[in-house]
Design goal:
Elements: E1 12-14, E2 25-27, E3 41-43, E4 51-57, E5 65-71, E6 76-81, H1 96-102, E7 106-110, H2 125-141, E8 146-152, H3 153-165, E9 171-177, H4 192-196, E10 202-207, H5 211-223, E11 229-234, H6 242-245, H7 250-264
Parallel strand pairs: 6-7, 6-8, 8-9, 9-10, 10-11
Antiparallel strand pairs: 1-3, 2-11, 4-5, 5-7
Helix pairs in contact: 2-3
Length: 269
């Protein structure tokens, strides 16, 4: 797993972030007022959370043992799923996942089947879907009553479908980074009708030169049925969690994504 060192410096963040300096092209929520009003400042005492190495079975017949890292214990959980790019693993989401955990959320990062410390064959999109199904079941076993999904690439497509279905009714927010409407192997696709049922808070992020994903992300954002939704478009050609590590775009995406999580499932409520 990639190693990162995190220094948690964020003590206060604005509850609404439409006025962030240096922000990308951002499509505001349709419910925002024409004239932005001063936003209250949300102050949360950060906590130091020790990572715990965990394993759980993938949610398919093979039941591959998935390796992950769990932070904290809370009925509100955030699951970060990396995409299927070469050399991708759970470390893609560090140190941002650690920052989210410091706000009190129960956070899970993990290696999809065939990546990082998790064995087996990736098996195309099937490895990602089985791994995500296993991650959801694991977090529910840990006591999560509300879940926010943050995923990228092919994992982002499946995250959208899971949020649309929301079979257990406990997914309360979904963030899709660099997601297309159809997976590379054509086994996962998000339909127009599905997107209209996506009424929970959503965040969509993509870079302007990411061709198909750029067009698909814009289309999915427009079709999403909820009113609490935000589209972030960054310059260049960067994908998934790599946007978070970009010197120019990363800090802005981190601020918007953290505000989204805090808004979708506020800690302490």
């Amino acid at each position: 797993m990639k190693k990162f060192c995190a220094t948690l410096l964020v003590l206060m963040i604005p509850f609404a972030v439409a006025g962030c300096s240096g922000s990308p092209t951002s499509t505001p929520s349709p419910t925002e007022e024409p004239t932005p009003q001063p936003s209250p400042t949300l102050t949360i005492a950060l906590v130091e959370v020790a990572p715990v190495e965990v394993t759980f079975p993938a949610g398919d017949a093979a039941h591959t043992t998935i390796h992950g890292t769990l932070y904290g214990q809370n009925p509100i959980g955030v699951i970060f799923t990396h995409d299927g790019q070469l050399n991708s693993d759970r470390g893609d989401w560090l140190p941002f996942a650690e920052q989210v955990a410091a706000y009190g959320y129960m956070v899970l990062i993990y290696d999809n089947r065939g990546y990082g410390e998790t064995g087996g064959s990736s098996g195309g999109s099937g490895g990602i879907t089985a791994s995500m199904d296993g991650a959801l079941a694991f977090m529910r076993e840990q006591g999560a009553e509300q879940l926010i999904l943050v995923s990228s690439g092919t994992a982002g497509i499946y995250g959208i479908k899971l949020a649309c279905e929301n079979a257990n009714g406990d997914i309360v927010g979904n963030a899709a980074i660099s997601a297309a409407r159809v997976s590379f192997d054509n086994t996962i696709a998000v339909g127009r009708t599905e997107l209209t049922t996506l009424t929970m808070p959503t965040l969509w992020a993509v870079t302007s030169e990411d061709e198909v994903r750029f067009e698909d992300t814009q289309a999915m954002y427009e079709l999403a049925g909820g009113t609490d939704k935000q589209l972030l478009i960054y310059p260049g050609m960067i994908r998934g969690a790599d946007i978070l590590r970009d010197e120019e775009s990363g800090p802005d995406l981190a601020q918007h994504l953290l505000a989204f999580i805090l808004r979708a499932a506020p800690i302490g409520e």
